[in-house]
Amino acid sequence: MYQEVEQRSEAEIDRMLESESGDDLIRALLPLAFFGKDWKVAQETCVGFLEHRDPEVARIAALGIGHLARIHGKIGTSAVTVLKKSAGRKTCRRCWRRLGRH
Q1: Which DSSP string corresponds to 39-96?
Q2: What is the pLDDT tens value at each position of the chain, 102 positions in all?
Q3: 64 contacts 31 by C-beta, under 8 angstroms
Q4: Cα→Cα distances 60→6, 39, Å
Q5: Nearest to 61 by CA among 19, 88, 14, 22
Q6: 33: buried, middle or exposed (CB in 10 Å: 19+, 13-18, 0-12)?
Q7: In 10 A of CB 46, how many CB atoms?
């Protein structure tokens, strides 16, 4: 279900990213991608969560990288490398099925 991405302060995002809560991480990653001041920092933060133990956190991290590429028209090599590496993982395959791309 679609939810509007809520703009958050840098301090709030930082606090949420330090949390152990998957819900906090999920609620922090997209605002960072959409509204963060430095796209490279946002991308590296998302890359760091691509292999998170919670598959929803990993999925949102990948989505954040996609939004960063869409918004800024570029993507860093570290993100491409990690995305390619994780493309065969079960979580990634499930995400592709949701999008109708088997």
Answers
A1: HHHHHHHHHHTTT-SSHHHHHHHHHHHHHHHHHHS---HHHHHHHHHHTTSHHHHHHH
A2: 677 899 999 999 999 999 989 999 999 999 999 999 999 999 999 999 998 999 999 999 999 999 999 999 988 887 888 777 776 665 555 554 554 444
A3: no
A4: 14, 16
A5: 22
A6: buried
A7: 26
